[in-house]
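Notes continue from the previous slide.

Worked example: a multi-chain complex. Inputs as given:
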Amino acid sequence: MPKRAEIISIGSELVSGQALDTNSQWLSRELGSLGFPASYHTTIGDRMDDHIAAFRLAAERTDLVVVTGGLGPTQDDLTREALALTTGVPLHEDPASLEAIAAMFARRHRPMVERNRVQALVPEGADALFNRVGTAPGIWMRLGRATVACLPGIPSEMKVMFYEQVVPRLRQQGWVERVTIERKINLFGRGESDIEAEAFDLTVRGRVPEVGITAHDATISFRIVGEGATEAEAFLQTEPTADLIYQRFGDLVVGEGPTDVPEAVAARLLTTGATLAAAESCTGGLIAHLITAIAGVSPFFLGAVVSYSNEAKVELLGVPRELIDAHGAVSPEVAHAMAVGARDRFHADLAISATGVAGPGGGSVEKPVGRVFLGLATPFSVETRQLDLGPEQPRDIIQRRAAKIALNWVRLALLPWPDKPD
Amino acid sequence: MPKRAEIISIGSELVSGQALDTNSQWLSRELGSLGFPASYHTTIGDRMDDHIAAFRLAAERTDLVVVTGGLGPTQDDLTREALALTTGVPLHEDPASLEAIAAMFARRHRPMVERNRVQALVPEGADALFNRVGTAPGIWMRLGRATVACLPGIPSEMKVMFYEQVVPRLRQQGWVERVTIERKINLFGRGESDIEAEAFDLTVRGRVPEVGITAHDATISFRIVGEGATEAEAFLQTEPTADLIYQRFGDLVVGEGPTDVPEAVAARLLTTGATLAAAESCTGGLIAHLITAIAGVSPFFLGAVVSYSNEAKVELLGVPRELIDAHGAVSPEVAHAMAVGARDRFHADLAISATGVAGPGGGSVEKPVGRVFLGLATPFSVETRQLDLGPEQPRDIIQRRAAKIALNWVRLALLPWPDKPD
């Protein structure tokens, strides 16, 4: 009988629909893989009696209660007080937490207001959970037969604290025994239904290991769930299925886990030592942003010109003005010249360019919204490609698709490049 | 006293975290604007006793219970049966629903399997809700003192049925009289606890209209909930509070509703006719991306140079190489020269620059991770600013904060600019 978990999300912005709760989903997946299937998600606002009732009910019906939110310094943040009231103990100030909060403010060169002191309060008998990335410490305590972990509602803080504070304590408690791992193999360059049709044998129900397909931002992911006494054993169970996917889908496979197209490009730049530049019009800096979001890419990504105006295309990328006059800024000829200009001006091995109509305005019969030309200049060749990503798609989707297809082109171009010697 | 609502989402794919529940947020917003603030979201899987307990609890503590999911034809779909068990009545087949289901299958040229007949079952005394866009009819019934509406979990079906079946019945019941609207006023440039400390009089409980504070991506939002017999009256109720916020926080106010810093900059560029360019090092294209994500900005945003390499700073922005050698690429001197270079090369009225250490590597004692220098060149002056956003923050937060603070600086610089003549 696995231990059951409940996730309680606190925030009037959540019950009112002002904000979307994504923490519960994330926590459910993580808890599930640790062997605690979540049985309930409960979301409440900022009424004290709702807090107490929710904590009581959760502690009655589950073994592990993970609470997010309500740990801030404001009057609406009731989690600390509600837990104390539920268990009938007073709150006391945790000196280590107070010190950590003060240090956090000092590091940020901001004065600590008196109100932030309340964040150092924990119910008597509870442990404060250290928050390395924010001001609000978490809380770890028993409530009846259940264990309660309270984490901040800010997703980035919540995730760090879950891994660093909650998981180790669950292990210490001897609650994490059987290990489930999920391997995610990411593919890019073909539609979901196409890939699904080629993978019916893998996704059939009851298969061991289980395989699911999900799609995010045009990347299709196979998720393989392996189980075992140890992580290594669970991983081993996934191996034959992973091999099969790699063999069947070849170059469509971008990578595993968090490796999507930009990460794969960055990794390939690192191993080949090739350098990259970009010339962006309709993608408006998104190609550069996707690559520079990755740490350690500086030596290989030399930069980009976002040439939103025609003048910038001419002056900063050396695109001949006559070319723009003759073919228009959205044309294969200009995409070609932008790629060459970026390659030469940045002295890069490769340069990728994008020019198109991101919409919603600016489309015409010859150049509808969603028409994008990409250019790829390498030391050996210059090629262009035409994409039609509209016209019914919104601006952000057209920009994101164009940037991702452009980077995927760079990835494919780098595959045959030799690795640099160590 | 407004009638309170609870939203119950049913599906093991939701509690397990396999799928993200977006229905609850959507329903909360809709219910809120109709005058039924949602007080609870509850998510359960496919256990019968959880269904019954959740329905009972919801009917005790709220007036209106909206259930989504669990109306399909499979064995896991327990909503119908659970409602019958909760109220102690038998299920019976609704002839109109059966006919509608059969007709739907006929239209789709698919055989109707026997299992689909169960979708026509409703608890005795309940009404079936016609589903124009799918096979599963909904259910409308009383449970104790509460009204229960069950809708399919598929968002597109749920939304159509909410508007077509639920809202008219709420009106018929005389339950939709008052209108609630929510106004969101967004501030940027100061911390949440600072602003909270200056707004205690506004956020005090029981105030009319009610004011809440939320933070997203360093933007702090006041949410004012107004109520009235009409939308106009509800809006009017928010006016004095909104005025007060505008007066008290002055230039910190970025805009209302979806207007965050980039949108405010874009709007100001449009009304002044000023042109903007950017020179980005550590932000890697994010400033340009945030601006170009907004439609219609092309005439005013001329472009950017993402000068990740020192060569690019020298060659594309005209930063003197000696300046980089003397002060390092991360320095006020280089931020200054980058801004001037971008302003001049793009022939822009304003140019914003950013150079810094986004981390996680590359930090030093003199230039720790998170140290960023911004430069702002206008026709009248060039200024630089130093930011310290780390060192404990992850790379993406440092990049996002730096880009947003940079754009906010542009916003503030554009405030005194005269609007262009019509």
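Summary box: Chain A touches chain B through 90 residues (CB under 8 Å). Chain A has a mean pLDDT of 93.
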